[in-house]
Design goal:
Strand order of the largest sheet of chain B: 3-2-4-5-7-6-13
Number of strands of chain B: 15
Oligomer: heterodimer
Number of helices of chain A: 10
CATH class of chain A: Alpha Beta
CATH class of the largest domain in chain B: Alpha Beta
Strand content of chain A: 15-25%
Strand content of chain B: 15-25%
CATH architecture of chain A: 3-Layer(aba) Sandwich
Shape of chain B: globular
CATH superfamily of chain A: Thiamin diphosphate (ThDP)-binding fold, Pyr/PP domains
Distance between the termini of chain B: 65 Å
Radius of gyration of chain B: 21 Å
CATH architecture of the largest domain in chain B: 3-Layer(aba) Sandwich
CATH topology of chain A: Rossmann fold
Chain lengths: 261, 372
């Protein structure tokens, strides 16, 4: 290579549409979208992937990915994904859902898709709050956390306890891959990408239900500057929601899934 | 005793013969009609009195390479329909009244997202848990929208097992033509009864159906497709809604179906659909034998409602007698259609109670005695 010849070493993934996203400053949805798009590129899926967008902050995800997209009713993404995947098993089907969507109104759809071992990939963005509707309590809101519907902090006596989805789903036989990651630092992002690769690989190999929970920030609804929000994930959320691989089918422990970057 | 590992279905012993009269149960005919129409996916949830539909699908859908899935709820079932329809496949769900209520959210989304599918409601007594007896109390829910928003669904109302077959098949064509959900409404009596039926010798090969270029089947060689009912900008949603309204108006012009019997000399026209019409037809024969000049006007499409055609009948008769298995629902559409051209009387039974022909004969003869 001649000296001075330049080559592209970093660019927008082809699966990510070149449009301006609506996410708030400091929100980590953008990073998670990028990771999903990188996987769509890596597995060469853009021409046979169908993504299911949720109701919540990621509702416009259908504008951000270049693959075919379906916007589902609140919480119903796993059922919609099931409908697509069952009639077109050749397609790669993923849903992208928040905590209110997946763990509250869509709890039944989530658990039963997992129990059936539905061969789909779920990206679960857990930021412990309803962002889009104004910062209400989510099923994953931490005890003591102030939200617009727990103005004095979440009290277990009246508002119940946070739900740990990965732990809950790990009791089932259907999931082929379950893990919780976060994207608060470059190292965490790399780990998240590795986990996401496995969640994609699980479907491509027909192993069953795969879900990746990503602890995410919501500086706007948490009322914190972005940097403090990142620390809050590490200091508070990971205590309640440990970063961990809960289920990983034997077949996924091969070379490709181990790869970094 | 250990439970049997498999159960004989009523039809297993007797393979279906096409093109000749055979005896089949209404619910099973609905399922067979769907498969004959090229339906290759069924998502449902157990509820009486429609259970033979999913049972039949579970047994026979694999024979045609289709998908049967028992969902965890009616809510999930209709959203699986949403997904399968988005992927371009002919798909159906079936339920009964309380289950159809649960599906309304999904039906609203399916209508706005312009996805073809067929939804069968084998109606039972309501409200609430009600009972499992025949009823037509879901008329409002079926024809006025049911879920939130400005949408409509085409509604077909068969009155015999043969019509369950013919109209369920046709429902799939209508769903594709108007790109939306089509409802087929029967009731416990129609679903459970066995009658002679002739199944068509020609069945639809799904691969012969017109392509659906809007479907989410992978963005190969084209920009990505999006199936969506969200239009955040109000003028965009208004435009989408108005486009759908135009489609409903087109359906109203082209798809109205009804049948008339003995209307030529009638002074009384009974308006009834489905099971109520079936009972009324028998009663009309008896009443005519007693000299009462009475005929039957039977809407087959409940939406679009045969308003113009009914108004023409109203011009010629003295009295319209609306007979429904409800506390009075279709009668409102009848009054709107008739616009005072004739007196409109109502006779209803609700809560799963069905008319006897004698009760209807008595009603007709007493109307005639009143001088109508």
């Amino acid at each position: 290579m001649a000296t001075g010849e330049r080559q592209v070493v970093f660019s927008r993934p082809e699966s990510l549409a070149p449009v301006r996203m609506h996410y708030c400053p400091g929100c980590t949805h953008g990073i998670i979208h990028r990771l999903v798009a990188e996987m769509l590129d890596e597995f060469d899926l853009v021409e046979r992937a169908v993504g299911i967008a949720p109701v919540g902050c990621a509702v416009f995800a259908y504008d951000y990915f270049n693959c075919d997209m379906i916007e589902a009713a609140h919480g119903r993404a796993p059922a919609v994904a099931t409908g697509v995947k069952r009639v077109r098993p050749d397609l790669f089907v993923f849903s992208y859902q928040g905590d209110g969507d997946l763990a509250s109104i869509g709890m039944a759809e989530t658990i039963h898709a997992a129990a059936r071992g539905e061969n789909i990939t779920v990206v679960f963005v857990n930021n412990a709050v309803y962002g889009m509707t104004g910062g209400q309590m989510a099923p994953t809101t931490l005890l003591g956390q102030v939200t617009s519907t727990t103005p004095f902090g979440r009290d277990a006596k009246t508002a119940g306890h946070p739900i740990r989805m990965c732990e809950l789903l790990a009791t089932l036989d259907g999931p082929a891959y379950l893990a919780r990651v976060t994207v608060t630092s470059p190292r965490r992002v790399r780990e998240a990408k590795r986990a996401l690769r496995r969640a994609f690989e699980a479907q491509e190999r027909g192993l069953g239900f795969a879900l990746l929970e990503v602890l995410s920030t919501c500086p706007t609804r948490w009322g914190m500057p972005p940097e403090k929000a990142l620390s809050w994930v590490e200091d508070e959320m990971t205590t309640q929601y440990p970063i961990k691989e809960f289920v990983c089918a034997e077949e996924l422990r091969g070379d490709k899934a181990e790869g970094d970057s | 005793m250990r439970p049997s590992t498999h159960r004989q279905s009523e039809t297993k012993a007797m393979p279906i013969e096409r093109g000749k009269r055979i005896l089949m149960r209404g619910n099973e005919v609905v399922a067979q009609a769907a498969m004959d129409a090229g339906c290759r996916a069924f998502f449902g949830y157990p509820i009486t009195p429609q259970n033979q539909i999913p049972d039949y699908m579970a047994r026979h859908m694999p024979e045609v390479g289709g998908v049967f899935l028992q969902a965890e709820s009616e809510v999930s079932a209709i959203n699986m329909v949403y997904g399968a329809a988005a992927a371009g496949v002919r798909v159906m769900t079936a339920s009964s009244s309380p289950g159809i209520s649960l599906k309304q959210e999904g039906i609203s989304y399916i209508a706005e997202a312009e996805l073809p599918c067929v939804i069968v409601n084998i109606m039972r007594g309501g409200s609430g848990l009600g009972n499992i007896a025949p009823s037509q109390a879901d008329y409002f829910q079926s024809v006025k929208g049911g879920g939130h928003g400005d949408y409509r669904t085409l509604v077909l109302a068969p009155w015999s097992v043969q019509e369950l077959y013919d109209l369920t098949r046709e429902a799939f064509d209508l769903a594709d033509r108007y790109r939306g959900p089509v409802l087929v409404v029967g009731d416990a009596l129609l679903g459970q009864m066995m009658e002679p039926v002739v199944l068509a010798e020609e069945v639809v090969d799904p691969s012969s159906l017109p392509a659906k270029p809007w479907a989410t089947t992978g963005a190969r060689g084209r920009p990505h497709n999006v199936i969506n009912s969200l239009y955040i900008n109000p003028p965009d949603l208004a435009a989408s809604n108005m486009r759908l309204q135009e489609r409903y108006q087109e359906a109203a012009r082209r798809e109205v179906r009804f049948e008339g019997e003995h209307l030529e000399d009638a002074k009384i026209a009974v308006v009834a659909y489905g099971t109520a019409a079936r009972v009324a037809a028998g009663a009309i024969k008896e009443a005519r034998a007693e000299g009462v000049q009475v005929g039957l006007f039977r809407p087959i499409t409940l939406f679009p409602f045969p308003s113009t055609q009914l108004a023409e009948v109203a011009d010629k008769v003295d009295t319209i007698l609306v007979v429904e298995l409800s506390a009075g629902q279709m009668v409102e559409d009848v009054r709107l259609a008739v616009e005072g051209r004739a007196e409109v009387r109502f006779m209803g039974k609700c809560g799963g109670v069905v008319f006897t022909p004698a009760e209807l004969v008595e009603a007709m003869t007493s109307l005639a005695r009143e001088g109508h």
